[in-house]
Amino acid sequence: MTRLLEVEDLKVAFDTPRGTVRAVDGISFAVEAGRTLGLVGESGSGKSVTSLAVMGLHRGATVTGSIRLHGQELNGLGEKALGTVRGRRIAMIFQDPLSSLHPFYTVGEQIAEHYRVHFRANRKAGRARAVEMLAEVGIPEPARRVDEYPHQFSGGMRQRVMIAMALACEPDLLIADEPTTALDVTVQAQILDLIARIQQERGLGVVMITHDLGVVARVAHEVLVMYGGRAAEQAPVERLFAQPAHPYTRGLLDSLPRLDDTDDAPLRAIPGSPPSLIAPAPGCSFAPRCARTTAAAAEEHARCLAERPVLGPLAPGHQAACHLPLVPEGVL
Amino acid sequence: MTEPSLTGPPTNEPLLSVRDLVKTFPGRRSRTGRPGAPVRAVDGVSFDVGAGETLGLVGESGCGKSTTGRMIVRLLDPTSGTVTFDGTEIGGLSQARLRPHRRDLQMVFQDPYSSLNPRQTVSRIISEPLLVQGESATAARKRAAELMELVGLIPEHLDRYPHEFSGGQAQRIGIARALATSPRLVIADEPVSALDVSIQAQVVNLMERLQQELGLAYVFIAHDLSVVKRVCDRVAVMYLGRIVEIGDKAEVYGSPAHPYTRALLSAVPLPDPEAERTRERIVLLGDPPSPADPPPGCSFHPRCPKAQDLCRTERPLLRIAGPGTREAACHFPEVPGS
Fold first, then answer.
1. I need a surface site. Which of A218, A326, B45, B319 has the fewest CB within 10 A?
2. How many CB pairs under 8 A join A and B?
């Protein structure tokens, strides 16, 4: 059986006057129908660039590696062929719905637009589809609101419009890039529930890009933690939170203030700041901030700084790119 | 009204006392030029902050938490109400008369880059409040170097510009500037929400350490309930310009009395997949209403799962709910043990 989306050794590099930025440096993952992959990382870790590359929206970047949708290779496909995939089979929603919606057109026209292109539908059918989609994403009075403009909607409602637009062509895969970061928590809960409901109804594969580990815990089945353009750790969601193997993942979890905390001990912050992507150090990109590297014996310490770790299996579905992982390497 | 905090000094006078603070902004003009209904961004807010204490001000966008903070430091003039700082009413003072008090009252902003002048060196940025207060340039520069060290930056970097620092470092510069005049109260408006998770913890720890070392009081404004739980002694939850619940952190977080607080807390995703799956969640319907056209009665009633007829007509006032000192503005509060 071919998987819905398979990405293998994806590399995205940008040439800048100050040197080549390796925004994504060898990422592999797969998404199956009806499942959600959480792509976690801090700013600059390459999570958004990864998703743009999957969509073929990487302007001026050099992309190598393989991106297969239902077994069909997308990397290197021409604009025209990509056009039949983009919006139709893979759809994307972004963080800020106001800047992704065109202020001059009614939401109905915008939802209908690519439906009409992909399905060669006339204006009337497009409009009917827009009303239907608005109703599906829970917008009250869809037949009236279809003729309104984006500024007449609240933040949460605009994100619903974006979702309606993304799903109008019944895609197989939805890439959601920080879809709730700009929203209030009570509205965030509504939008996450909406995405989960539609996913169940349609068997949609979802890539959820976020920096919020709480969101990941709520929606993801599998998680890929990115650091400095590389995969730090990949695991099923329960396993990742219960037994993180990469010191960076552990550090992220420890540095979070949590609602269910009882003690008021100081947060265990990760010292330092994220690495430069222009001239990455030869070893593990997390080594300069890693407590385990610092505590390690001289020989191991030197290895962390000199040799780049590759993803190694620890348990079924669980991999970490670390010379000194926090769980003993298990038997597969 | 409010009991002095246990963590404060043994005086009865709170450091900051805000009473019935109101801010209205003129409504948008219609096409004929007739002004629209005024927007009551803050609608009668009262609270106290003791010396050395942290009060968290939480709520969703548009609830008036930032406007309240800006009125305390007089970046905005209150429409009515009083702000009493250390026994002096500062809400109505002219900017010139206010200046001596500014020494004690500083602010940290959300976005470190846009709140630091890109054309000034860090030395100049941190010295600015001292120069305004009449210190000499040499003394101010010396103090700036000390402050850099205090907030965990390298004093040799004094002559660099803000863009040469990372987000977390830039926020440290913002904090150093706020601390330059040795204030007693710092209003921090979303000080960590623009920062990455791993950096957030560094800045939160820094702010806690400074509080202990310098005896600072904070008004910590944030939408992130987990961060507020970490840093605050007491917390006030705002909805549509009013405080709906205020009390000790343990009471408000442990057994929220107002349905809005309950919903807000249950909406925060926990970084724990198992807890997430089993947890009871209250999902509110709809969006927060517009402060230009607040609903009658309790402003939360259109979204409240417990709303009854009384809630639609009569506005609830803050009153003690439960065994402790916590107050909630609700006709039917959840009282622990009842």
1. B319
2. 131
Q: Do A120 and A244 have their domain in common?
A: no
At B161, which amino acid appears? Y
pLDDT tens for each residue of A192-206: 999 999 999 999 999
Residue B12 is predicted with a pLDDT of 67
Respond yes or no on whether ipTM tops 0.85.
no
Which of B172, B196, B210, B255 to mutate to test binding with chain A, by most A CBs within 10 Å of its CB?
Answer: B196
Inside any domain, residue A330:
no
Do A105 and A241 share a domain, yes or no?
no
The verdict on A207 and A246 lying in the same domain is yes
Query: Hey, of A259, A264, A277, which one would you mutate to test binding to chain B, going by the most B CBs within 10 A of its CB?
Result: A259
pLDDT single digits (tens) A223-236:
999 999 999 999 99
Instruction: Determine the Cα–Cα distance for residues B246 and A223; give it in Å rounded to an integer.
Output: 38
Same domain assignment for residues A137 and A252: no
Length of chain B in residues, anyone? 338
A77 and A110 in a single domain? The answer is: no
Cα separation, B210 vs B216, whole angstroms: 7
Counting the structural domains of chain A, the total is: 2
Strand segments, DSSP code E, in chain B are 16-25, 39-49, 54-58, 80-85, 88-89, 105-108, 185-189, 217-222, 234-239, 242-248, 319-320, 327-328
**Interchain proximity A189–B275, CB inside 8 Å:** no
Q: How confident is the model at residue B82 (pLDDT cuts 50, 70, 90)?
A: very high
Report the alpha-carbon distance of residue B51 to residue B46 in Å, rounded.
17
CA atoms of A60 and A78, how far apart (whole Å): 15
Q: Compare CB distances from B227 to A189, A257, A268 and report the shortest one's residue.
A: A257
Angle at which helices A185-202 and A155-167 cross, to 10°: 20
Plot region of A178 (φ>0 → left; ψ -120 to 50 → alpha; else → beta): left
User: CA B141 to CA B155: how far, in whole Å?
Assistant: 10
Looking at every residue in chain A, the average pLDDT score rounds to: 90
Domain boundaries, chain B: 117-174
Residue A48 sits in the same domain as residue A70: yes
Quickly state the pLDDT bin for B336 (edges 50, 70, 90).
low
Which residues on adjacent β-strands are paired with residue B245?
Answer: B237, B328
In this structure, the answer to whether residues A62 and A124 fall within a common structural domain is: no
CATH of the domain at A48: 3.40.50.300
Residue A123 lies in a domain: yes
Q: Are residues A11 and A136 in the same domain?
A: no
Domain assignment of residue A199, given as a range: 1-89+172-259+268-275
Say which range, A289-293, B102-106, B302-306, B321-325, has the weakest mean pLDDT. B321-325
How far does A94 lie from chain B, in Å, by closest CA? 18
Contact B201 A268 (CB under 8 A): yes
> CA B157 to CA B144: how far, in whole Å?
11
For residues B4 and B174, is the Cβ–Cβ distance under 8 A? no
DSSP string over A117-143: HHHT--HHHHHHHHHHHHHHTT-SSHH
